Amino acid sequence: MNVPWLTVPGEQPQGAATGTLAVCFAPTGAHGSTFASWRGRLPEDTTLAFVAPPGRGTRVDEEPVIDMAAYAEATAAGIRELRGGRRLVLIGVSLGALLAYETCRRLLDSGVPVARLCAVAGQCPGDFHGRGEEVTVEDARAFVAGTGLTDPELLADPEFEEVLLPPVIADLRLAAGYDGRRGAVPQVELRAVWATEDPHVPEVTVRRWAEWTGGDCTLMSVEGGHYAHQENPAAVISACLDGLPGTRPSRRSVLGAGATAVASTVLGLGAVASSAPAARADAATGTGSVSFDGDPTDPVGLAVAMIRQNTSNPGDGAVTLPLARMLQGIFRAAGVGTEIVPTPKDGNVHFFARVPGSGPATKKPLVLLGHSDVVPAIGDTWQTDPFAGEIRDGKLYGRGSLDMKGVNAAFVAALLRHVREGAAFDRDIVFWSDCDEEQGPYGVRWFLTEHPGKVTAGAVITEGGWVLDQRDGTTPMIASLTCNDKRSLLLRLETASYATHTSKPFSGQAVIRLGEVLDQLGQWRAHIRPNALSRRYFAELAEATTDRPFAQALREMLGARTDRQRDRAGEAAVRLSGTPELHNAMLRTTLAFTAARSGYYPSIVPGTATAEFRAAFLPGAEDPGRIVAELRSLIGNRATLSVVGNPGETEQQALDRLRGYLATPDSDYDTDVFRAWQSAVRRTHPGVRATACQFEAVTSAVPFREQNVPVYGMYPFTVNRDMLKRMHGTDEHIGVEALRQGTETVYQLLAGLRTDA
């Protein structure tokens, strides 16, 4: 311990002349142990210090401080003594954000520079007016229960309550007496971090921090709840510490991405994302634009520029306006009309470019639909910055390179090549970059509902089918255009026992039981039941492959008359496939496990544990209600399995809605667009079979299919197993030459719709 108000844990340097000193302020009622998981995760030149106020931890016998000024003065004095020559970062969580803010004011007033102030899941100073309302024990109990600070069973234990409630009461009184409007706004770089699943401090509240600094304010988002600094420490650390001048990232894998976690979560307010070029945000709206100086018919350059536009979707939609403005500049320079349509979320927009047809207005437009949002790139180690668009060994790396900015680049480059040639099409060609495909409320369905008639599509091409090679990895084998999607259902598991002190563990703990049930579900396999589209695809694949055992297994599977025969042959076909995960998903219902949660305090064995997973269904195959019943029978009474529907939906309503989606008929493949694609494949991949296919994932097709508009899916470039495994994953990439060849396929498809050819 350096001074009573600060603790430096472990074997860390306590008075270094260089590097960074990160001082952490705990949430209401907590102490330094709330940051225990941060040790070893920090950049290697960073020292971690906890604020250790009276009334808790090693100072539990001292009288708590309930005056903000006294608290901040004492902390600032401790920091001045400990700092040495290091750059200083203050990080506050929840109430700790206010404590860090007031401490920052005093440090700056005394001439001590603060490199960065970070407010994590905290209300801004303007939300507090110093009225000094009385805080009771009941208020403290309600706060603890409402925020999930501890298990309700433990709160009912008088001995535990005696330890827990006094610091909570003290901190609530501290906040009640605080008036944030007093004092000058500090001139400091500020990062305001919003936790996407925080029910107590929403994004709109975190955004108000921009008003409380005279310096740059960057709004970040991380996955997790109100205590995200414990649930998702790597992301919070990266959000707070990335980009400091002179810092060196930790060698530990959890922070191997360095600036990655920050780059993937920037939402606006003056954000600068990592070292890759990115949109400079407008201070008020979090929007901006980046010009594109390359050749717009070069798909590789376009894909790089798109990847560098960080459009990470934290769950409620991405900020896509900078990318839309870049696209607008590209199309306008080519003489193509464009439109940007905003949604109710700031910076979240749809982009359209329309090349008018020249023939009689008898054919409705062909829509090239590509989503601009991408999943986040936080928590896992990348070889490259996921938003740098780096090309290495003939591969283009970056979040969205495969899903689906590479496809978008192929769409744009191919279309603009035709425009440059003065093409005349037999219908309008519309490029639509939508914003909320991964998650969020303002995607295609919202747009078609809110703007009826604005896009009257005759056919849609979006993401979907793959081009696969033979086993040699170089000879193209088969190309597919998907004509229907799988549909998924979110399911939740919960196990329960009882909560207790960690000194008294017992058999049947909730976490252990959850693990056992998950292991059992992980071993479960649905019957192999290919639908009509899958049967068509695998019949073509059996003819296309040069692998005789693989072809034989496929034919046996398609000819099987019983579940047992089909399962045996199908399992053999999957084992022999060069892309087993892909082909398995095209043959049966699958389970994908996405989240597990339990625990909230380091000395408590939690009484409940939950996990979530998605069951994905083939149209025309399994009934989702039957699968749910089968899974419940499998796990018995060891866990509770529930269907997670839309807000307000019953389980039956959610299942019926899914059945409706699964009943959507396949897109007709006896159309001029499908035939134009087949002709294009023959030109770019001579001898390769081009077939209709079942997509293994979900796209934005349903709203169009409900209007009887055919929707086709394509990833026009060749992929392999490694590339497919990295979709939505670490080191997502595509082949540079494959992207160029895929763009040629799109170009040839559009050429089939020209009237001047």
Radius of gyration: 28 Å
Uncertain ranges: 247-289
User: Order of strands side by side in the largest beta sheet?
Assistant: 1-3-2-4-5-6-7-8
Tell me, rounded to a whole number, the average pLDDT: 87
What helical percentage do the residues reach? 25-40%
**How far apart, in Å, are the first and last alpha carbons?**
80 Å
Coarse shape:
globular
Strand content: 15-25%
| Number of DSSP strand runs | 25
Largest sheet: 8 strands, mixed
User: Helix/strand-derived class?
Assistant: alpha/beta
Number of helices: 24
Characterize this entry briefly.
By secondary structure, this protein is α/β, with parallel strands linked by helices. The protein contains 24 helices and 25 strands. The strands form five sheets. Strands 1-3-2-4-5-6-7-8 form an eight-stranded mixed beta sheet. Strands 9, 10, 11, 14, 15, 16, 23 and 24 form an eight-stranded mixed beta sheet that branches.
Detailed description of the structure:
With about 750 residues, the chain is of the alpha/beta class. It is about 35% helix and about 20% strand. It is built from 24 helices and 25 strands. Strands 1-3-2-4-5-6-7-8 form an eight-stranded mixed sheet. Strands 9, 10, 11, 14, 15, 16, 23 and 24 form an eight-stranded mixed sheet that branches. Strand 6 (about 190-195), helix 6 and strand 7 (about 215-220) form a beta-alpha-beta unit. Helix 3 (about 135-145) crosses helix 5 (about 160-175). The longest helix has 20 residues, at about 400-420. The termini are far apart. Mean pLDDT is about 85; it is low at about 245-290.
